[in-house]
Specification:
By secondary structure, this protein is an alpha+beta fold. Helix content is 23%, strand content 34%. Helix 4 links the parallel strand 7 and strand 8.
Length: 247
């Protein structure tokens, strides 16, 4: 843990009624830490995370072990000093990868949701409860499928989980929706109000709003922005998406 994160933990423990808002959250598909130059460079992803300086970060396509690339999550955790949790969607001797959440605040519970669809590539969501100075916050980090039928099924399963939610929730990730307001995404309005679409892919010349942040209750969203620095444009084929949340 770095000094900043440690001080926050101590401060929250001694002053549980402290107002931590506004909070900054981000979602980032790191493309297995392979940049637009074709280089595998986990440290470059770590540098982007330092640029963002968010309080909670949802990551997709994270190498988590195996003989192919190994586990890069410890590198990202060391760079930020954050708490880290993982949710593998594929686990073989050669390749273990999936979603992850990095948080400046303690993660008090996690759940792994299997969103796999038929014989398609395995998918899932990492569902984490975070204690933000005594304020419970639920973070769901996911990466949905490439086909519309796959995404619709996965969103339906996610909504069933949200029906039982009793705390503020933020759904973040690469939803793989290529249209500005696709049929599958419209189903999310049953739980979340619409949020602005921001172009994040491909990182060098963004055209598509594949990465999204959905918040309930919606009024807590202050603003949303894309992190489009020169480094971010090289580090992955997606740009990070950032939201600022009020209490």
């Amino acid at each position: 843990m770095n000094d900043r994160a440690t001080k926050l933990d101590i401060h929250c423990a001694t002053a549980p009624d402290t107002d931590p808002w506004p909070l900054t959250v981000a979602t980032y598909n790191i493309h297995s830490a392979i940049g637009t130059d074709g280089k595998f460079a986990p440290q470059r992803i770590a540098d982007v995370l330092r640029e963002i300086d968010a309080d909670v970060i949802a990551l997709q396509e994270v190498p988590l072990g195996g003989s192919r690339r190994g586990n890069i999550l410890p590198i990202l955790q060391e760079a930020t000093g954050f708490h880290a949790v993982e949710g593998a969607v594929q686990d073989t001797p050669r390749s273990r990868y999936g979603n992850a959440v990095l948080s400046r605040y303690p993660v008090i519970a996690t759940r792994q949701l299997d969103l796999s669809f038929g014989s398609r590539e395995p998918r899932g969501a990492l569902d984490a409860d975070i204690d933000v100075c005594g304020n419970p916050l639920r973070i769901v980090a996911t990466h949905l499928g490439l086909r519309p039928a796959e995404r619709c099924d996965q969103i339906g399963r996610l909504l069933k989980v949200f029906d039982t939610n009793r705390m503020p929730v933020i759904l973040m990730g690469d939803l793989n929706e290529w249209f500005v307001w696709g049929r599958c995404l419209r189903r999310l309005v049953t739980h979340f109000e619409a949020v602005p679409e921001m172009r994040t892919f491909p990182s060098r010349w963004p055209i598509f709003a594949l990465d999204r942040i959905w918040i309930s209750p919606r009024h807590r969203l202050l603003r949303i922005e894309v992190h489009a620095t020169p480094l971010a444009k090289r580090a992955s084929d997606h740009l990070p998406l950032i939201a600022h949340i009020d209490g």
